[in-house]
Automatic annotation (TrEMBL):
UniProt similarity note: Belongs to the RRP17 family.
Organism of this sequence: Dioszegia hungarica
Comp. bias (Basic and acidic residues): 53-103, 189-225
Biased composition (Gly residues): 254-263
Keywords, in A-Z order: Coiled coil, Nucleus
Single GO MF annotation: rRNA binding
Residues covered by region (Disordered): 48-271
Protein name per its UniProtKB record: Nucleolar protein 12-domain-containing protein
InterPro entries: Nucleolar_protein_12
Subcellular location: Nucleus, Nucleolus
Amino acid sequence: MSRPKSNIALLTEGAAYIKRARAARQEQVDEIKFDDDARKEWLTGFSKRKKAKVEDRRSRAKERDRQAHVDERRKMRQELKERAAQNVRDVRAAMGLEDKAAGEEDEEEEDETMEAGPSKPRQEEAEFSDEDQLATVTITEDFDPSSLPTFNPLRSSTSPDPDHPAKPTPSRAPVSLMPASSGRAQAKAKKEKEKVKVKKEREKERSRNMETKGERKKGKAMEAKKRGHKATLAIERDGKSRGRGAATKRGGKGGRGGASARGGGKRGGKK
């Protein structure tokens, strides 16, 4: 069984409710005002915001591609530098010179640039680079060929030897512009054509030889009959044309005479 509340508890029981109600009233918003322009912009700007997001993604993709291209060009330049250094080392080894480290070479270059003298040329190097290309320009002033290290160039197999003069090479026949395969193909096609022609002639002769005397006689008779029929038709056409011409001539002359005779007869009868 619960203990009965004291008078103080009963009298102060509503204080907690009053405190909570006062805090709620303080946090309550007195008035809500809407910005019509901002509301209209938000409601009608869906397409614009979507396009802005697409453009933002597109610009970020372009920036990523550009950065990847720049990194690739940087790697290529580094590889070219390493390859050039390796080529220099190979050339020095082929010439029998000592291979020097990169630090020593840099120190020598610095010493050469620091030394001043009329006999030594002055070199200036400048690098110009962009996203796609790297250009190194070296300017040498007062260039003296005698300052270059002398060495015996390796004679290639194609270069002439001064001690042994080159033998005159015999002249060769002119080479046709058409490749050998095309020439062989044309010759083969020509041979095939000749074979087909000879085969047709042989078949024609064979067909003639296989005919009997009666068949040949019958064929000659049919040819003679055709020629006679053609000649008859030609004669008939010629005769018809001549007959028409003679009739027109006779009709012209006799017509006038007959009319006059008939007229004379009538006149004579009247008399």
